[in-house]
Amino acid sequence: MTLGVIIGNRDFFPDSLVEKARTEIIEVFDKLNLKAVLLGTNETKLGGVETYQEAMKCANLFKAHREEISGVLVLLPNFGDEKGVADTLKLAGLDVPVLIQAYPDELSKMNVVNRRDSWCGKISVCNNLYQYGIKYSLTSQHVSLPSSEVFQRDLKDFVAVCRVTNGLKSVRIGAIGARPGAFNTVRYSEKILQRNGVTVTTFDLSEILGRANKLNGDDAKVKQHIESINAYAPKGKTPNEAMLQIAKLDVVLKEIMEEYALDATAIQCWTSLQQNYGCNVCTSMSIMSENMLPSACEVDVTGTLSMYAMQLASGSPSALVDWNNNYADDPEKCVLFHCGNWAKSFLPDIEISNAPILGTSVGVENTYGALDGRTPAMPLTYGRISTDDPNGIIKAYIGEGELTDDPLTTFGNRAVAQINDLEGLMKYICRNGFEHHVVMNASKTAGILEEALSNYMGWEVYKH
Fold first, then answer.
1. CB atoms within 10 A of CB 298
2. Helix, coil or strand: residue 33
3. How many helices (H) and strands (E) does the chain have?
4. pTM here?
5. How confident is the model over 280-317, as pLDDT tens digits?
6. Would you list the domain boundaries of the chain?
7. DSSP classification of residue 105
8. What is the tens place of the pLDDT at every residue in 177-210?
9. Which fold has domain 172-463?
10. Rounded mean pLDDT of 135-142?
11. Residues in domain L-fucose isomerase C-terminal (predicted)?
12. Dist CA 289 CA 320 (whole Å)
């Protein structure tokens, strides 16, 4: 990832502090495999920004790298000129996240030659950015050295915030099929999403099934996909005929995603696919999610948007789950469940199977393609993005917990979650009209998501 870097300066503080800061941040970026776009030492005084002329030079540099820059880091090795920083960001017009860093003073070096006053300068910079209407992020400690672990952790989190923010502003989601009639819960507003940069492209399910039915087992692409599916998960008792149907559908879904440059999909599955095509699409959805192209069932578009946001925050796959069952009488544990579309990162014992619940109405023989597997203990970030149509907003809730190894005897994709004040969370979900679907990710990234969704996207976020 590439970040623009502004090094603030104020002329009555020692210039050597600016020069040293430039060298230090380049070393940190190299260590973290980040690319910096910053002024050269010959373009302004030591590469710092103070005057309006210097702000224009830095802004022009950022404009020249507009397509690369995902965020901006502001370094304050001394008090810095707040107008110089604010003018640079205003003139550059990048509309990307901004992180404000300030150096600490050393008690033994509070003389004129070494004094920084960055603690105070950071407040002034933030005040100006607030006046200019420029959104910004803060480090976990008010002042910290770039070489410190705490700052480098902050910088890594900021990079993740940039990924989430920039990714959501340009994401393309394919809505494949109509929302199942019995699932009012997954209704959403395309218009509200589009206003926030989220594009939804719709497809009639009959178009997808029609293309799949034109393929046969002799097609090279179908053979290739059967091999890929067999390499992805054991087929168990799944008949060869069902494997062929799964592979043909998998071919078409891959083609659709490439043709329309889709980042994610939400697919109709309950119950048209089973009745009109004779298999579940869960395995294909799992493969896509594992390959960082998240896919949600029941045309849950904002569910797959939630999967995508969490994936961007953590760099790992997400899964759409149901808040499904209590776990005995433990008030802080519950069962997460779905027929079988979770990425195999969550399923070390993965196997292609059928969907017994759905099979009671459409015939179990028509539900092969669902996955069976238990998720073991791992970190948990959970959450949900939703359009609140009556209020014309996008809202979300997020939180962290743990997935546990507690005993659980059932079928499908399943996990046990432990969450502090789970009862309070359920009350919040119910009172605010959220869906029964939630997204899980094996990470601890709620803080990153809160910063990206609330501060930069401007959405209403509750962090449990």
1. 22
2. coil
3. 15, 18
4. 0.97
5. 999 999 999 999 999 999 999 999 999 999 999 999 99
6. 2-168, 172-463
7. P
8. 999 988 999 999 999 999 999 999 999 999 999 9
9. L-fucose Isomerase; Chain A, domain 2 (3.40.275)
10. 98
11. 336-462
12. 10
